[in-house]
């Protein structure tokens, strides 16, 4: 058995070959042998909305897609406006309060800057 390289993104040793590329089942990263590895910057992360606008703390956003909410009887509807967002460096990029739902965590790919 050949020795597979560790994932350059998460360092996992569970990578496997899929034709001409390597795949990491842990983080989903795909790469080609010898590909340059991007080194993350130590600076602050830049959050962008679905169309590429840069988001900042305190911005107002609009939800662009109906979002199902666990435990709620109805989804957050597309077009819902959210004011005074807070950006975080977690799985979900945005902490906010939505009227009728309360505190929520949203991903920036489902919102547009208002």
TrEMBL record:
Top-level lineage group: Bacteria
Residues of the Protein YjdM N-terminal domain: 4-31
InterPro entries: YjdM, YjdM_C, YjdM_N
Classification via Gene3D superfamilies: 2.20.25.10, SH3 Domains
Pfam family, one: Zn_Ribbon_YjdM
Cross-referenced NCBIfam families: phnA
Protein name in UniProt: Zinc ribbon domain-containing protein YjdM
